[in-house]
Design goal:
Blueprint lengths: L19 H7 L8
Length: about 35
């Protein structure tokens, strides 16, 4: 939070499936090629 003190930010909680961006970014990339 110290890093953000100089910026105007709003932190919002998006529960479960409503937060698709974080869900996508947190998934492991699995290579299907051999």
């Amino acid at each position: 939070m110290e890093l953000l003190k100089d910026y105007h930010v709003t932190i919002r909680y998006h529960p479960g499936k409503a937060n698709v961006v974080a869900d996508t970014l947190s998934r492991k990339i699995v290579s299907m090629g051999s």
